[in-house]
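Hello Y.,

Per our agreement to keep a running log of every chain we model this quarter, I'm adding this entry. I've kept the format consistent with earlier entries: sequence first, then predicted structure.
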Amino acid sequence: MKQNSTRKVIIDTDPGIDDAVAILLTLKSAEFDVIGITTVAGNIGIATTTRNAGRILALEGRIDVPVIAGAAGPLSRKGFDTADIHGNDGLGGVAFPDPLAKPLAGDAVIWLRDTLEAAEAGAIDILALGPLTNIARLVQEHPDAARRIGRVIAMGGAVYEPGNIGPRAEFNIAADPEAAEIVFAAGLDMTLIPLDVTRKVRATRDDTAMLQQTGVPAAVASGALIDAYFQSTTGGESRPLHDPCVMLLALDEALFGCETLKLAVDTGTTGDAGALTVSEDGAAVSVALKVESTTVLKLLYDRLTAE
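Predicted structure for the entry above:
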């Protein structure tokens, strides 16, 4: 996505503290025409992630963006509970308004199919912030519609870094390894942003104070969200901003360094379920492995604090 151009995007998400910051960034960036938010169970149950998507939209007064509930769990295994990190409400207890509209009736995968089929092929990108269950179901159940996606940019995985939910496994991929395997193998134009990059994009307490002092609703909420992240995890002077990296790469890919890797997904039942391995037997995926973190953070904060 070139800067100053507008792309139609669908956000597939499980809000989620850093999901919320990523969604606010998208809503504050004119380069994105957000045509819908599809939800997936991941950080917390589907009812809560769906309500949270509506609450985040309400903060920006965006009644024009529909929310459609998707997968209530992984394709074939039990989901995780991360209330200890994201809070019982999924948003770290940060105050958000009630949704301005009810979610659309029906299933996100059907909505994705219908929306993609109604648009010009390649005209809509998907920004994926959670487990890839909805996209995997679209690939399996409506492959012709899936092929109409312009691009998928997804946060997930760890390639050369340790995992964050297993020794080598990252949460989004580990939450539904089978879904990741299906999506990687689908031949989509896909870029994966793993922990190798997201751990280098880090907010400090000074950053959160700055955001909250601006008085701009999206910035104030983002600062409070990241502060909640500090309170729920131990150690260190900064916190990684995983999901916003998806939108930041879409805004300015020149700030990231990507290379194509063949990735195999561990779909076993051990603590390494969801681990990624570079393997000749894997599916070819563009993977972000480098980032200009200072410039990326400036872009994020400039957008969140803009009046």
